[in-house]
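Late entry, evening session. Most of the bench is empty. Finally got around to the prediction I had been postponing all week. Sequence below, unchanged from the version circulated by S.P.
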Amino acid sequence: MSRKVSYSHPGIGLLKLTFTLAFAGINAPQAGASDLAERPGVEDEFVTAIASEQERLWNVMLFGGPLSSGSLEDVLLFKSDYEDAGFVGLALGREVYSNDWFSIELEGGIGQMFGDSRGAQVWGAGYARWHRFPWNNTLRTTIAASIGLNYSFRDLRFERQSAAPDDAKKLLHYFSPEVTFALPEYEQTELVFRIHHRSSVYGLFDCRNCGSNTPTIGVRYRF
């Protein structure tokens, strides 16, 4: 899809094709099938009309960044210090609903912490994404946030220290706000700024200070 703010069904593309064929017939009543076959420009227009209506429902993203020593608020306010550790991840997502203003996406991902805090992670989450911005004709922009679960296969060193005196938890809530930017002519390719955030949700996961924050930058491709 060229992402649009309005919902578009593939059947609309077929409807446009029908009208285009009818219009061609009205303007050239004597033309047969062989005549149309000799007009590649007409065929190209048909293909373009259908392709422009197709939805790009799937996406894949590669992203990474340094592990923060601070809270989510510190990261958002750009006043955080950082650990000698980092993260790289790969995520696959699919849009399941969209309208003129926002969309809902499901995402699954795998990642690896490295450096002083090592450990593999997997997560699954649902994202609510807002698309409507007045400058989208110049720079396509979205903001989104997730709710989901993140599982670390090891107790991360930083999370063990920050959780004390509680025990660190491998399974935590996954809340990862993000903002994306894309050029209108290449809107399927997005530059993504995301905070990879694991947390106990104020003790909901039986730990008061468990979790970590990793500000990341990545590239997402929609197909």
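Two things to note before I forget:
The longest strand covers residues 82-98.
The helical segments are 10-27, 33-37, 40-53, 72-76, 157-163.
Will write this up properly tomorrow.
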